[in-house]
Amino acid sequence: MQAPASLDRFRSAIDEAIFRVLNDRPGPLFDMMRHHLGWEDGTLTQGGKYLRPTLALVTAEACGGNWEDALPAAVGLELLHNFSLIHDDIQDESSYRRNRPTVWSRWGASQAINAGDAMHALSQLVVLRMLEDGAPPHSVLHAVRMLDETCLALCEGQTVDIEFESRIDVTADDYKRMIGNKTAEAFRCALEIGSAFAGGSVEQGRQLGEAAYEMGIAFQIHDDVLDIWGGEIIGKETALDIRDGKKSLPVVFGLMQADSPGAKRLRDMYENGFGPDAVGDIVALLESLGAREFCAAEAASHWAKARGMIESAGLPDDGAATLIEIGEYLIGRPN
Predict the structure, then answer these.
(1) Helix, strand or coil, per DSSP, at residue 97
(2) Does pTM surpass 0.90?
(3) Is residue 3 a contact partner of residue 322, using CB atoms and an 8 Å limit?
(4) What is the tens place of the pLDDT at every residue in 217-246?
(5) Are 169 and 270 contacting, i.e. CB atoms less than 8 angstroms apart?
(6) What is the CA radius of gyration of the chain?
(7) For residues 250 and 14, what is the distance between their CA atoms, to the nearest angstrom?
(8) Strand 100-101 vs strand 43-44: parallel, antiparallel, or unpaired?
């Protein structure tokens, strides 16, 4: 499936904006942040996907505004997202991200915590400085509030995600509440920010935020499927969430099938622990239980809700079509 051109359209503008934020800040604290974001010696060697800021800028245009007016707030959201990734890497003991050493694995956990905390502060300052450039104060205040609410949700979602690792009684509703906080609230933030800086109405922003939340749920469910079965398409290492004991939706679904012999075996493995050699058996059990099909149907259901909300949000046809094109790609992407 080909990625929509709109997902790459703002990449250079986002790159340049992030570079300006960090360029005049010397010292090891900012070196760590630059490394995490893909910059080495003033050159971007491997940046992120910029999905969240891109959604904000696409939405600003879809609502009839100028995407450049929303750019600093979109960058603030990207910095907030990356603050959470730096801390996630510490908590998950992940040594690599995007084929580069993680901050904690290169500088140690204590310094990585400093880098993450500082990036969180920068995410706020980037938005607040919009006031100096004449941005509407009510839009700036709304964006700062959205960033704080999103940060709180991210932390709550990550807390629950870690708690789930030691439980086998996680339900699908439990899982959706967790990813709602950990993933979908950032999508909500992106579309609400875009609407706010385009001068969209409060009701339109709210409706787009609800659509984004459903889109985020669908995105994360599809991501769970890719973690287990995506290697068949793109040849990457798979089932890392299973190895880490994460309760992704395919695992949750499998554990819920109480009357199935396969599910009983699965529960036994999760109750008594398993090593890396058992991961293949777990994947096979999930496949036999129909976990992949269940997750695909769930992702499609949440995306259908999102699409309906986008179509009824009063956007120009081309703006709605761009958001829908992105959503369709996100639940069908190969990586």
Answers:
(1) strand
(2) yes
(3) no
(4) 999 999 999 999 986 544 345 688 898 889
(5) no
(6) 20
(7) 34
(8) unpaired
